[in-house]
Amino acid sequence: MPKVEILVDNKIKCGFQDENENWIIKPNYDDIYKLYLSGDCFFAVKIENNWGVIDQELKWIIEPAYENISTIDTIEGNSWDFLVTLNGKQGVVDCFGSTIIEPKFDLIYMIDVFFDLTTYLVKLNNKVGIISECKTLNVEPIFDEIIPDKEDILLSSCIVKLNDVWGRIRVDGNFITEREFQLDNYRLNKTFREYNNFPRGAHKKEISLFSELESLIGLAKVKQEIRDIYSYVKNQENRKDNKLKTQSITHHMVFYGPPGTGKTTVARIVAKMFKELGILKKGHFIEADRSQLVGEYLGQTAPKVNQIVDKALDGILFIDEAYSLFSKQEDIFAKEAVNTLIKRIEDDRDRLIVIMAGYKEQMDIFIESNPGFKSRFNNHIYFENYNAFELLEIFENLCSENDYIISPLVEDAVLKIIENELTKNEKAFDNGRYIRNLFETITKKQSRRLGSISSPSKDELQSIEIEDLS
Questions:
Q1: pLDDT classification of 157: cutoffs 50, 70, 90
Q2: Domain finish residue from 31, 58, 89
Q3: Which run of H or E residues covers position 232?
Q4: Which class for 11: exposed (0-12), middle (13-18), buried (19 or more C-beta within 10 A)?
Q5: Cβ–Cβ under 8 Å, residues 237 and 254
Q6: Half-sphere exposure of 116 (CA within 13 A, CB side)
Q7: How far is CA 183 from each of CA 49, 108, 392, 398, 438, rounded to the nearest angstrom?
């Protein structure tokens, strides 16, 4: 077969020439489109405003009878379907010219789904349905609205609306609600995360350093900010080693956010991070609150603050609900604590990192109340509420860590409990604390249920049942 090229002459007519520039087909086509060039070639051609297809040997596959034609790659590039339009109606023909779907649909889309199969999304008389890669009608055209979802090729081909309820169509054509889809997606992503928690390959040391951070549920923005801080500090240290100019860095931080969102856990990881970077010699973690820093009478506060700071030197001092140190102007003991703390932060700036945590509104007021804090605490990191699926995963981790097992039915029921609680208490929600309390309540109910069994089996001791949730 000679080499085939597409040419367009001055009259905007198309044809083919071989490698010797001899005409194979005279330029009598209005338009021509090379569809595929890897082994086999197909060409969509337009003549007198009608489209057809010819193969690499320049033989007609589809007679030029269609108003419009485009190509669809079906299974891993091994075969081709053509989307055609005739009399304003759409259909599909295969690469052999055989009609797969009669051109009778008002609208048709191709959607790639599970393992490169092709599904056709069709619209007929303002109703929408799906035709599978096997060209059989999987779903009758009954949906009110439908949206192709190419980002989610593993679980579902498209998003549909039926009787004002949004859901998904699976590859097999079955309809599931949006919530059922989200639960499926959660299970799949959880499997991926569990697999990825085992570092492999290059950069093992660096992966190991952040593996604890990455293993935390949710907190995507927090994780990124911690990684950014690590990269910046490491870069400054590298510049110093190479006798380049460096910027003065303050490592103190403020963690904002609602309770139970992992602020203390992340602070412990930050301590390890700064030890790894060589900023802190010990990298230990000292936690304190108002009761440990503020005295009950004049002259007692400064020694208490100094005692806590001395313990924290070469490590992290974490002050939870830090705004309680300065709740009102007339609190002279709190003022003494704040002033002593600021002095020690300055005096021991090379040996101490302080992380203060609390609710955002109160912490904003607290930081603004003293210029000493405002100038030294430049790293502000916000911890958001967990969503329902993240809270479910925290619950399941507690189950796993304590040798309990839940079925998919129980998993779904726990998710509903969490969703209801989030709806009721979105602004004042305890996040991880709520989940720990929920876990303890459920396991106590399980113990009560098993109390009537003299010698429960191992499976019974591990299994949480629906009745344990009520």
A1: low
A2: 89
A3: helix 220-241
A4: exposed
A5: no
A6: 8
A7: 50, 30, 10, 19, 20
The answer to whether position 368 is within a domain reads: yes
Domain of residue 367 covers 217-382
Statement to judge: residues 341 and 409 lie in one domain: no
Residues 251, 378 within the same domain? yes
User: Of 89, 122, 149, which closes a domain?
Assistant: 89
Q: Which two tokens stand for residue 217?
A: 């549920």
| Domain annotation covers residue 436 | yes
- Alpha-carbon distances, residue 410 vs 338, 392, 465 (angstroms): 49, 11, 7
Residue 406: Cβ-neighbour burial (10 angstroms; 0-12, 13-18, 19+): buried
User: Is residue 412 a part of any domain in this protein?
Assistant: yes
**384 token code pair:** 């958001």
334 neighbors 293 (Cβ within 8 angstroms): no
Nearest of 118, 102, 41 to residue 66 by alpha carbon? 102
**Tens of pLDDT, residues 194-215:** 665 544 444 444 446 678 888 8
Give me the number of domains the chain comprises.
Answer: 3
Strand-pair category, 40-47 with 31-38: antiparallel
Write the pLDDT tens digit of every residue in 256-272: 999 999 999 999 999 99
Which residue is associated with the tokens 């802190």? 280
Minimal CA–CA distance to 274: which of 315, 222, 305?
A: 315
